[in-house]
């Protein structure tokens, strides 16, 4: 299950990055302000160096003007044998 979670974290960071590039045109400072977090946190998330709490996920989704459900769409964890 750990490997699956790592893959999901990478994909989530990629989804956030794509939306961030469209909405904020690469401006990490503006994204940090809009999501009410530190710019260092944004940099670390986009480089997949930091996990995302539920609280932070909600703030990022709000700043990106998408739902949390949209960010997490189609992620599945399969039961390992």
Write a brief caption for the model:
The chain is mostly helical and 81 residues long.
Textual characterization of the structure:
With 81 residues, this protein is mostly helical. The protein is 67% helix and 0% strand. Helix 2 packs across helix 3. It is globular.
Highlighted features:
globular; mainly alpha; 81 residues
Q: What's the topology here?
A:
Elements: H1 2-24, H2 28-34, H3 39-46, H4 54-64, H5 68-72
Helix tally?
A: 5
Backbone structural class = mainly alpha
Number of extended strands: 0
Rounded to an integer in angstroms, the radius of gyration calculated over CA atoms is 13 Å
Strand residue percentage: under 5%
**Global morphology:** globular
Helix-strand string: HHHHH
